[in-house]
Amino acid sequence: MEHIHDGDGSSSSGHQHLKSTSKWAVSLENLLEDPEGVKRFREFLKKEFSEENVLFWLACEDFKKLQDKKQMQEKAKEIYNTFLSSKASSQVNVEGQSRLNEKILEEPHPLMFQKLQDQIFNLMKYDSYSRFLKSDLFLKHKRTEEEEEEEPPDAQSSAKRASRIYNT
Fold it and tell me: What is the pLDDT of residues 109-130, one digit of tens each?
């Protein structure tokens, strides 16, 4: 009895994971909502030398969730210094970053980076995202998923069971 239960548990959890690539292919939003998708997209952008775009986008998402003013100030400075200042280590290419100055950083508000975040989102959406969907990295992941799906969920556990029976 228990073996059947095991098989069930693993196949249902496996099913949610299946086909994440088809969700990613629907929209950049879906891709960015999935931690695994973000990981793959980052790998891809790293190869394209534009990983800072998705890192900036993720930092802005985190920033919008902050409530505490002091935390917001720190995060705003960190975002500015990492991605927007002329001396930034991972500078993103957006218009209007020059308008963000030290004074604004002292009085942060949740949507202060929204315009820039939208610019980067569109840049990723119309540029790197479409290339990502054609990349080996994405296609390989998609193939792996499709192969996993073709294998009946029980095949492995019954094979294991069979080998156990023959070995005894």
Answer: 899 999 999 999 999 999 999 9
pLDDT at 152: 62
Return the structure tokens found at 93: 């290419």
CA distances from 64 to 10, 18, 43, 161, 162 (A): 36, 31, 25, 51, 54
Helices (H), 27-154: 28-33, 35-47, 51-65, 69-79, 102-106, 114-123, 129-134, 136-150
Q: Does position 61 have pLDDT exceeding 80, yes or no?
A: yes
Q: Please say if the pLDDT value at position 164 is more than 60.
A: no
Taking residue 121's Cβ as centre, other Cβ atoms within 10 Å add up to 19
CA distance 41 to 50: 10
CA-closest candidate to residue 38, choices 50, 30, 49:
30
Task: Using alpha carbons only, give the angle 97, 106, 111 rounded to the nearest 5 degrees.
Answer: 55
Going by C-alpha positions, the residue among 152, 127, 149, 124 that lies closest to residue 22 is 149
pTM of the model: 0.74
Dihedral sign for Cα 96, 97, 101, 106, please.
Answer: positive
